Inverse folding.
């Protein structure tokens, strides 16, 4: 039995190159929501040395001279392409966990090495054929090892995108050479903790006795050690886990100072968060708002509000959000970013009725929101907005180089001659 | 997989297909004689799209295929899962541009055949910048 990690290569860039063939095999960088920094790069852009997260002004000369293409992010397109990749993977019928927008774990049952490699190749071929997206496949006995295998599949061209990692003669030296920071689930903080106890490589972590790990580190470290020992500790999450929070936040196009501008932004973010909430059939009972002031250090202020009844009724959510934002707002301050976070989420159908609110009021609210959501979905743009959303658009950002919604808007279909 | 005796599919959580249960509420009076024969309404997505994950729509911007009944502004349903072969209408990328042409394969040579006498036959050489993007399955032409 093997785990496989299927990971799209340069996903956002690959999506763009599929519909703009002129960009294929060229340096391409995708920019963040406010065109501020690089969030994705094509293979050629990586080779050129463009780092992840590079602020756009650092690449300006390359862009102006035509050596680097940049595009604003087109998440509508990436989301749709991700769905297609995952749906194609589902046709194989194996247990599957969608891990992120461009990664999924598979459980390959009862396969030996050759069958597993064959399966990996079939997956890569089918996804490339059906969706045009290139992927890499890493195969190993646990998810953690599959992640390592995937990194090798991606990097070393000899393996043609599919790599099986279960040969002790390969695994031992590999683990010795892999720093703990590069292991899935271990970031900078945990690796610093491990370093304090003289554990620097994956091999050392694997060989450290359980008692020692239990004593000095949080449980996930022990689980990772087990995974490195080929004992699966992370079960495949095939069921969609109930969301714990829903956030909507953006950096403002222009820094704002007036209450009018701020409340418009807050209302807009709340409305979007509300849409997400309802799309998951959830209600929220706790709302947080954070504001980031334009200061030299990255600081922000946050405040929260709990409400008596779980709700997904946007007008109520906007009222609560504005209350919090007003409490945080200081005249004279300049704000560069804000966000709304909904937590204490419960499923719509499990909520008990409130004795102070008549059920007909709740039903009416739900019907109103259903109707609004339906109209907005049909129009595919926010045809219906709430009052405060329209007050100002100073904070809104118009992306400068965004491609069209090729697969989701009838008017945006790619043209062929 | 190649030699699987069973075609196993995971559970499809696809869109709901409303299935009319009864034509008339049955609290009084007599039921509709059609109740035993109800079928689903025709669903174009089901009829025209065999592989949703691999199916894309493109719009025609030129007239190189008018004699094949593909006109400017028509929308084409393109299925990437279908293997291209001689005679199929394909969407291809040639020199970085999307094009719709009929694929012809003769004596191990590949050609892109337009369906309009004003356009030349294109022969694909090994060093050509050529790639098949997908196979056209339906042509949607607006009559009104």
């Amino acid at each position: 039995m093997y785990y496989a990690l299927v990971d799209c290569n340069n996903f956002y860039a690959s999506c763009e190159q599929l519909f703009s063939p002129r960009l294929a095999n060229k340096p391409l960088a995708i920019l963040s929501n406010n065109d501020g920094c690089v969030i994705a790069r094509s293979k050629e852009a990586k080779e050129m040395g463009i780092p992840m997260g590079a602020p756009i002004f650092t690449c300006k000369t390359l862009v102006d001279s035509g050596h680097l293409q940049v595009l604003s992010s087109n998440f509508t397109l990436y989301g749709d392409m991700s769905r297609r990749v995952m749906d194609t993977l589902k046709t194989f019928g194996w247990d599957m966990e969608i891990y992120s927008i461009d990664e999924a774990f598979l459980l390959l049952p009862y396969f030996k090495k050759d069958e597993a490699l064959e399966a990996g190749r079939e997956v890569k071929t089918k996804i490339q054929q059906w969706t045009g997206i290139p992927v890499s496949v890493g195969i190993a006995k646990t998810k953690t090892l599959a992640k390592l295998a995937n990194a090798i599949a991606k990097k070393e061209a000899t393996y043609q995108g599919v790599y099986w990692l279960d040969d002790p003669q390969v695994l031992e030296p590999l683990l010795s050479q892999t720093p703990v920071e590069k292991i899935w689930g271990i970031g900078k903080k945990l690796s610093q903790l491990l370093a304090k106890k003289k554990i620097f490589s994956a091999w050392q972590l694997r060989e450290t006795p359980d008692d020692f790990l239990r004593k000095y580190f949080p449980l996930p470290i022990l689980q990772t050690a087990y995974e490195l020992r080929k004992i699966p500790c992370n079960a495949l999450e095939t069921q969609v886990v109930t969301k714990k929070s829903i956030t909507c936040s953006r950096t403002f196009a222009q820094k704002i100072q007036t209450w009018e501008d701020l409340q418009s932004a807050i209302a807009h973010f709340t409305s979007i968060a509300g849409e997400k909430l309802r799309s998951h059939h959830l209600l929220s009972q706790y709302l947080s708002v954070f504001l980031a002031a334009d200061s030299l250090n990255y600081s922000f202020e946050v405040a929260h509000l709990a409400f008596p009844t779980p709700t997904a009724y946007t007008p109520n959510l906007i009222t609560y959000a504005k209350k919090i934002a007003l409490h945080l707002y200081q005249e004279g301050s300049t704000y560069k970013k804000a966000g709304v976070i909904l937590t204490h989420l419960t499923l719509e159908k499990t909520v008990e009725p409130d004795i102070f609110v008549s059920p007909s009021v709740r039903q009416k609210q739900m019907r109103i929101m259903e109707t609004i959501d339906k109209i907005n979905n049909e129009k595919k743009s926010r045809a219906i907005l709430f009052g405060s959303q329209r007050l100002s658009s100073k904070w809104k950002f118009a992306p400068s180089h965004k491609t069209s919604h090729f697969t989701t808007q009838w008017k945006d279909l790619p043209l062929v001659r | 997989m190649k030699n699987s005796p069973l075609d196993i599919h995971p559970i499809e959580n696809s869109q709901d297909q409303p299935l009319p249960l009864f034509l008339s509420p049955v609290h009084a009076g007599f039921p509709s004689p059609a109740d035993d024969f109800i079928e689903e309404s025709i669903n174009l997505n089901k009829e025209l799209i065999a592989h949703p994950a691999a199916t894309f729509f493109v719009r025609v911007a030129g007239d190189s295929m008018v004699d094949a009944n593909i006109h400017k502004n028509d929308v084409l349903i393109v299925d990437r899962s279908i293997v291209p072969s001689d005679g199929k209408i394909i969407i291809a990328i040639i020199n970085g541009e999307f094009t719709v042409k009929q694929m012809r394969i003769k004596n191990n040579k590949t050609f892109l055949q337009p369906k309009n006498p004003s356009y030349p036959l294109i022969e694909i050489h090994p060093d050509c910048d050529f790639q098949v993007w997908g196979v056209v399955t339906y042509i949607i032409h607006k009559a009104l």
The longest helix of chain A spans residues 259-279.
